[in-house]
Specification:
- This protein has 12 helices and 2 strands; from the N terminus they run H-H-H-H-H-H-H-E-H-H-E-H-H-H.
- With 197 residues, the protein is mainly alpha-helical.
- It has helices at 6-18, 22-35, 40-53, 58-72, 74-88, 92-95, 101-108, 115-125, 128-138, 146-158, 162-175, 180-196; strands at 113-114, 141-142.
- It has 2 domains: 6-89, Serine Threonine Protein Phosphatase 5, Tetratricopeptide repeat (Alpha Horseshoe); 95-196, no CATH class.
- It has a two-stranded parallel sheet.
- The longest helix has 17 residues, at 180-196.
Amino acid sequence: MKMISLSKTLNQANEHFSAGQYSDALRDFSLALKDHPTSKEAYNGAILADMAMSGESGAEALFDYYSILRSEDSEQADTIISEILETMDGTLDQLAGLFDDTIKQRLAYEDGIMYTEFKELVENDKDFNRIFENIMFSTRVIITEKEDFVDFLDNLIDHGYKEMALSYLESALGVYPNDRQLRNLLRRLAKGRELES
C-alpha cells in the first residue's frame, strides 16, 4: 500500500483549516497520522481541527499562532503548542481572571506608570518611540485592562516593536486563546512578516 506524502497532506490540511473546513482538515491530519504516526504537526493539527469542529473558537487563534511559530522554528512550535494543548483542559477559566480587581489593586501599589499616564505622555509628546524607550529604561508600564493591553500591542506593532509584540502575544494567547482582538493582532503580525520576506 502506497504511503501518502506527509508535506502535501499537511499543506492540504492546513489550507482546509484556514478556510474553515475543519472536517476536511481533520480527515487530512488523520490520514497523515495514519502513515506518519510520529508527526507532531499532524497530531496537533488533528486536535485543533477537532476543537474547531466542537465549536471552540480558541482553536482558530491557536492554529494561527502555531502557523506563525512553525514558520520560525517548527520543532519549537510543536513543543509550545503541545504544551498549550496539554494545559488547556480546565485551566482557561482559572486564568481568565488575569485582569481582575485584586490584581489591579495590588499593581496600583507597585512602582511603575499606569498605561493611561503613558498614553497621556505619548499624546503630549507625539513621539511613541521616544517615550516608550525612556520608560523602558526607567520604570515599567502597568496595564490592568485587557483593552489597554490590546491597544499597547497595537502601538508596539505600529511603531516597529514587532518582536516584543509577538512575545507579549504568545503569553496572552496562552491565557486568552479565543480572543478575537488578539487573534487579529497575530494575523496582522503574520501578514507583516510575509510582506517583509
